[in-house]
Records
---
Amino acid sequence: MTALTVALVVVIAAALVLRWRRPAWYWLVFGAAFAAVRVLFQYTSVMDACGLTVPPSRWRLAMARLANRPVPESRAPRILRLRPTRTGLVLRLKLRPGQDAFDVSASCDRLRHSFAMYGVTSRELRSGVVEVRMTGYDVLKRVQMPAKTDPAPMRVPVALREDGAVHYRDYRTVPHGLTLGATESGKSVYQRNLVAGLAPMDVALVGIDCKQGVELFPLARRFSALADNPNAALDLLEALVSHMEDVYQVIRAEQRITVNVPDAEIAADIWDLPDHLRPVPIVVLVDEVAELALFATKDEERRRDRIITALVRLAQLGRAAGIYLEICGQRFGSELGKGITMLRAQLTGRTAHRVNDESSANMAFGDIAPDAVLAAIQIPTETPGIAVTGDSSGGWARIRAPHTTLRQAVNLCNKHAGRTPDLPALAPFRPVAGTPALASEPLAKAAPATA
Ligand SMILES: Nc1ncnc2c1ncn2[C@@H]1O[C@H](COP(=O)(O)OP(=O)(O)OP(=O)(O)O)[C@@H](O)[C@H]1O
């Protein structure tokens, strides 16, 4: 045996062992090429076995009869493009007459087994063209975001989807969002990723952290306003409502100028205003929203009603004024009192981490994507951070945010502290950077020593 043959055998053996062990980088080196060859080689027979072929047309049968040739075979969708990616393959298929996108999506599980891939999903790109995304390994096991994402204003690459695509939180298309999940399910890490993604953008961050500020106050240098208790939250929300009314006046004033100018665009929201007039957009992050809705006394009930009213007004009118809500909690249903379901109806973007019961999952998806409810309650306990995300179009996907630690988020916020806008309306709530207060008393006092 020559040295070359030995080297070849070693390389093939290494590739086979790695294929079996499947480390994350396997796909970068061997996986995509192997999978592309395998898919192309098996394509027609697999599509036939999965019921994704159509019988020959009458015209083709007649031509074969005239030419005295054998009966033509059934035909599978035509491959328009096959693109290897960091996590697997993307196939673009042109459907044959009589096929629809549902046929392909209904066969995804069969395709997954037949092509020996980890996951297969499909979506319709346009009439007659379907994209099939295949992943070679569990991309949500250890999330690695691609180095290059598609940047756009108010669009944060916040997590990875199970098909290997990046999941964006786009505030311009989905202005308000609701994130639910049981305790230790990964809500705070998801919210931290949002803050880390928003920190380098021209946006004001406002936080209401009812966990006594433990999640958002360490990120204070990038926040224009923060509140850590329901009383401060009420004042902050009412200040935001009056800021929103001021922004509406700016938009109206600009409309009066342009309405007389023929063919001019008339401003309908802050994004139609000229740059020098446009107020900075605001993202309001609310952590543990149920704390704002609970009350024990008459006074607290009055405060709760005012808080929910302010939140409903921001959700209904905030988008045009560039105010976006990001609400986080363990549950968000009608048991929290009047106004909650009205507020929930305005929160278009829904994300549910692991939940403990079906009714919590229903709070996120019951009214928009019933099959996502089942997916949310199936999230295992041992993989915190996995979530199901959907929107009002009825579509949903499994996602996981990268594991950003509080230290990494703090460093990012400190790096971009210079971008924190000063909002005069919210000045009383601007956090003051300073030395952290030391706990004055230990939580448990030492028992006196007895003889
Ligand atoms: N995307 C993720 N990848 C890996 N680990 C994660 C991820 N998200 C969360 N975790 C792990 O799960 C733990 C709990 O996460 P997190 O604090 O975000 O949960 P939570 O839902 O906010 O809980 P609580 O409501 O009790 O505050 C974290 O300490 C972290 O180690």
---
Amino acid sequence: MSQTAIIGAGVMGETLLSGLVRAGRRVDDLMVGEKRSERARELEERYGVAVVPNVEAAAAADTVMLVVKPQDMADVLAEVAPVLRPGQLLVSLAAGITTGFIEQRVPEGVAVVRVMPNTPALVDEGMAAVSPGSHCSEADLAEAESLMGSVGRVVRIPERQQDAVTAISGSGPAYIFFVVESMIEAGVHLGLPRATASDLVIQTLVGSAKMLRETGTHPTVLREQVTSPAGTTASALRELEIHRVRAAFLAAMEAARDRSRALAEGS
Ligand SMILES: NC(=O)C1=CN([C@@H]2O[C@H](COP(=O)(O)OP(=O)(O)OC[C@H]3O[C@@H](n4cnc5c(N)ncnc54)[C@H](O)[C@@H]3O)[C@@H](O)[C@H]2O)C=CC1
Ligand SMILES: O=C(O)[C@@H]1CCC=N1
């Protein structure tokens, strides 16, 4: 079995590590590079995985997953580039960082794949979009898809779409949690106990998501099925339109896309 290193084991790095272990990857075939020593100890205890210096991980692994913040990417690449060699695969999960940015900083012939994952990978319901760099073979792309496929669905997209994807599925869970928080808070305002409001909102979310996935019916049709003439839903939706919620989502996602574009420039 090939060796896989994860450099940067924060929220997303641990999500990936735990998913790979759940999917049956042997811990002996995994390695972690993590700067914070306390965090490294925590992961060693939790998973029995070897936490080693970045250069050791990068030298030993066939596939190196880069899961540090975009702002730390240049430093990590400068550290590991001297030990990388052609034939290895780098899989970057960092928002905004292009395959070109990475290819410029590593030896020629190292394959690069850019991925935008999301946190529902923690419950094996992730959505990841992968794009090949310029020296990437079908086998490299398939390996990246297999790694990400162990924690959810994977689609292949042209790299120029990555910033938009980041704004939708990468950041998307945060918008959904924000809506959930808002609905629970509103339920409390309407006089419900917080626990009841929370149960009602979460099951409504799960049920609605399942309907979307299992029926394949367009969301507009599903919304219309809930909206009786002169009924309660119509009154609620009128308020959402008056408060320009649709326009707010468009502006929010444009802002996320623009921020993703800016991250590669180091800002
Ligand atoms: N959290 C999320 O929802 C998503 C995150 N991402 C991407 O994943 C990457 C990581 O994000 P998070 O896990 O949320 O951040 P995080 O801050 O939780 O984790 C980053 C980890 O990298 C470690 N680190 C920093 N410099 C290092 C170095 N030189 N060597 C070894 N380890 C180092 C930090 O100590 C930290 O544990 C980012 O590039 C982000 O754009 C992508 C999609 C979703
Ligand atoms: O907020 C961020 O920059 C990262 C990328 C997508 C989700 N979280």
